[in-house]
């Protein structure tokens, strides 16, 4: 399969770019990989509850997450799955420190330490479900804009450009690097390329942990597989990756190492992705009629089973079954041990955890970068100028046609017209 060759090429490219796999033999390569994992960040969370005001009962709260616990490992990609409304994005946002409202209970540890907001902003990447790109910039300009905002001021421009070039190469965006991103009114890059640019923006700062919210939304199955293969290749750098996925293809699902499955905010499975199919075959008596077990699409079968059971009112029973399982006990033991590993954390990771600033650039540098990349481009973009300047010109033309020459006639009966002209001009002046 061409996609498989592409994934292998990308994995190799990533390894070479960061000094992995460049040794003289398998031992050197394995040692380099072990070093990456050692300096990676394990994310552990236990008894997570997230409460928000109830929309049905005034003064009461609704739990969107209920006693959820699991962990994410370096050099692995974890799938966060569940039916719509099960709390996938809520959990992802909590782990990334993006939830500012509501009440959160439980523990979230990065490398066995409670992360600060500064650490999360600086050393984690978050790829949103919907693209948040600037249509008037090219792919390379968009990434350079991010690099200049988020990489140290002291780093030479050429070094930043090299780093951006490496990310572009890793994400197979070389052919589109000089193409405008575009928007609804201006043709630009494809949807799959836009997803890769979003991922690239998160990678420019060399994050320790990468969160992705539905990275395959709006993509056809081939492009979705391609995007996830690119993401999977990033694990060779020791990055800890967690992605919410709704209905992955068999190829995409096979790329994940571990699976976290939620139903109505409760954990119904956490463990090896390969073991999930067998677990639900034995744990769920009534599996529903729609998807056959031998269909070949494990993700679809598991989701279908869970939705069927949940609609029959068995969501809580699924969670209880998992809580009593051997799998939960083994996972809990590993989780407890992981949350006590503070002594094993590398010095580099400890320095990162104690960072005192959320950004590495001062305010004035951010303003300079904004003017350099956005202000100059904005005033060359008709879609930006149209609603900001065009309507003013039209209004000025209408006003001029109505009151042309009105000020030349200084008679008492014309004063009201002159007053009206001055009023309208001052009232509607931008």
UniProtKB/TrEMBL annotation:
What Gene3D superfamilies does this protein's entry cite? P-loop containing nucleotide triphosphate hydrolases (3.40.50.300)
One cellular component term from this protein's GO annotations in UniProt: membrane
Q: Which residues form a coiled coil?
A: none
A Pfam family annotated for this UniProt entry: ABC_tran
Q: Which GO terms describe its molecular function?
A: ATP binding; ATP hydrolysis activity; ATPase-coupled transmembrane transporter activity
Its membrane topology is listed as:
Multi-pass membrane protein
Major subcellular location class: membrane
Membrane-spanning residues: none
- Annotated keywords: ATP-binding, Membrane, Nucleotide-binding, Transmembrane, Transmembrane helix, Transport
- Tell where it localizes: Membrane
Q: Could you name the domain of life of the organism this protein comes from?
A: Eukaryota
Q: Which residues form the ABC transporter domain?
A: 43-289
Which named protein is this? ABC transporter domain-containing protein
Which species expresses this protein natively?
Answer: Ostreobium quekettii
